[in-house]
Amino acid sequence: MSIFSFISGFPRVGQNREYKWAVEKFWRGEISEEDLLKIVDNQILDSWIKQQSFLIDKQLIGDFSFYDQVLDAIAYLGIPLKRFGYISTNNLDSYFSAARGGNINGKKEQPLEMTKWFNTNYHYLVPEIDWEKPFKPDISRITHEYNLATKNKINVITKILGPATLATLSKEEEFSKEQSSKLANSYLDLINQISELGVTEVMLDEGAVAVGGHFVEKSHFSCLIDVINSSSINVRINGYFGSYKGLLDDLLDSKLSILHLDIIDGNFKLDEIIEISKKKKISLGIINGRSIWRSNLKETYTYLDKLKNKIDFFEISTSCSLMHLPYSLEKEEALDQNLKSILSFGDEKLNEIAFLKESIFSGEISSDIEKYTENMIKANQVLEGRVENKVRERVDNLTDDMFMRGQDREERLDLQIEKIGIPNLPTTTIGSFPQTPETRLLRRRLRSGEIDADEYVKGVKEIIKETVDIQESLGLDILVHGEAERNDMVEYFGELLNGFAFTSNGWVQSYGSRCVKPPIIYGDVFRESKMTVDWSAYAQSLTTKPMKGMLTGPVTILKWSFVRDDISNREVAYQIALALRDEVEDLENNGIKIIQIDEPAIREGLPLNQEDKEEYLSWAVNSFKLCSSGVRSETQIHSHMCYSEFDEILDAINSLDVDVLSIEASRSGMDLVNSGLSKKYYGAIGPGVYDIHSPLVLEYKDAKERINQLSSNLGEKYIWVNPDCGLKTRGWDEVKQSLSNMVKATVEIRRGEVE
């Protein structure tokens, strides 16, 4: 019996976000590329050594990324991009131009489209493959990491995104025979070069294949099989978020060396695992790579103990990469000790694997596992706030009328235009405005005790007034207060709701250098007092123009938090929705006539398995309607969604019964904005015309072209003009220029000045 341990990825921005700070300095020109690469080497080496200390048998070349793993694969394989040509991690300017936009051959190019990685909170870059040019694999970065590993006596294999997943996430249609052969040959060329280094195994990261045959085109999967069967070295498949439904037999019949099974999301039965192990060596993803909660190691040991005498070889592993978790609990001294005793971040997951490996080798449960499990169970029992009977009774007593507005949407929209005074092609923003160093300093000074609450409120009000004045000067029609008081669109509300806890260093990569610090939902959720009303009411007092109230929706709060696992997500969503319902009604009662409830996470939370989608959409839609349906018909409800492919859930979006929906559009080339959209979506809509995730200014010409496209495809009656997303991460200079161009173009089109 051979038992090993392995993980398919680790958090890659560093324990204290070292890479984030370094790469942002590089972008600003404050450090050289050489300085950046030294920091990267140290970080990679630290990660390898840490994994070794927790008995992980092999480390990964290619797990670190300068921005995104999909873009890395494009660079390694030498695949040219339509607008950016060849990119390389040896030429970071070319690499980052595709990620962030830049000047290519004298022309300003928007960055690659960005969208969600499966159903996680990570965003990846969508490649635009140029099939006309040759593919030129580039092993230089892999060689560098291999030499770093060899120098430090680290046992490594190479990790690269697999061909079926690359093709699927690139939104490639069914491959032609020539395209399939071209991509397979590029992989095989790269693998041959890797083998010449002395690496004996390559791991193809194939999440799409694990999801199943409904997710992957047949020709994309065939390309993968060709690569496996023709490889000069051993190929293992790292699949996750599913059970390879419809594809498993072909994988087992291939020359694959090791197959990873996601025990958490794949729901494999013991008998299935034993049968699979008769054909292939297996890696058992028994530790949940997406959950911050401790594993019950006694139960896990019992599970593995049933397998160990029936399987010749297996690895103990995490279900997926740990990149979706914070780095470590080490610095979380402020957390409630009982809560901390049921949590497990990146380091702690490694420790769980080490405990299991030692016990399986010894043939009995270790005292470490006994103590670890006992502490978890005891802490769970005594943790305060876990159950609030009044909250649960309120959910149990919901009635059908609480999920419905009193009037049809079209009638409401006409009434709202009249009562609120909404012009044709109204201009607005999504909610946040730039968070300057001064704004962040104000919050830090409050937390540190340098200023009291009164001084803080005074400072925020000054920022709000300045933000309102700027919007007035730009000529925007519907204003926002700018959210200067908010650190994060989810964390802010979590801090004001019961049932949430917060880490000091629990950062998780969202995209590139962007990190988020998700709250932890550990108990029943309820609102004790108003959260946003005073700020919105103050902002409205500064202007005669309508002021939007800004809330984050229940599904997004749930999905962008680490959610408890002892009750259903539906129950948690309804608890949050009831708390938000109270806030919505208070906003309305305080003179706010437009209320935006952002729900970017509804699409990303869609289950990957078809059979689970209907149930999810039912409670997701109902939770939104529960929080938004308590207002009068003349109060306008907005929502916002981004980074999503909406076609699959347009029926559900219609069912939200939102009055105005704003969506991401500009980064995807306004693809969604076509003449068929108005036949599928029946409310007012604001497809974003300004890509705020790029540092590029929205040019007047581009703004006018995009607004004309909206007008011609959708008509003007229910069209809103807005950016793709909030402006929090941008600078004031670029924001002012971009919004000025957006408003100018809109005003001219209103006057009939169409080019």
Largest sheet: 8 strands, parallel
How many angstroms does the end-to-end distance come to? 74 Å
CA radius of gyration is 26 Å
How would you classify the quaternary structure? single chain
What is the β-strand count?
Answer: 22
Shape: globular
Q: Report low-confidence residues grouped into runs of 5 or more.
A: none
State the share of residues found in helices, binned by percent.
Answer: 40-55%
Percentage of β-strand residues: 5-15%
Instruction: Name the structural class.
Output: alpha/beta
Strand order of the largest sheet: 1-12-11-10-9-8-7-2
Number of helices: 30
Average residue-wise pLDDT: 93
Itemize the secondary structure elements and their pairings.
Elements: E1 2-6, H1 18-27, H2 33-53, E2 59-61, H3 69-77, H4 92-100, E3 102-104, E4 107-109, E5 114-116, E6 123-125, H5 140-151, E7 156-161, H6 163-169, H7 177-197, E8 201-205, H8 207-211, H9 218-230, E9 234-238, H10 248-253, E10 258-262, H11 263-266, H12 270-277, E11 281-287, H13 297-308, E12 313-318, H14 337-340, H15 346-362, H16 367-382, H17 389-396, H18 409-421, H19 437-448, H20 453-474, H21 491-496, E13 497-501, E14 508-511, E15 514-516, E16 520-527, H22 533-541, E17 548-552, H23 554-559, E18 562-563, H24 569-589, E19 594-598, H25 601-604, H26 610-628, E20 636-641, H27 650-655, E21 660-663, H28 677-680, E22 684-687, H29 700-714, H30 732-750
Parallel strand pairs: 1-12, 2-7, 7-8, 8-9, 9-10, 10-11, 11-12, 16-18, 17-19, 19-20, 20-21, 21-22
Antiparallel strand pairs: 3-4, 5-6, 13-16, 14-15
Helix pairs in contact: 1-2, 6-9, 7-9, 13-15, 17-24, 19-20, 24-26, 29-30
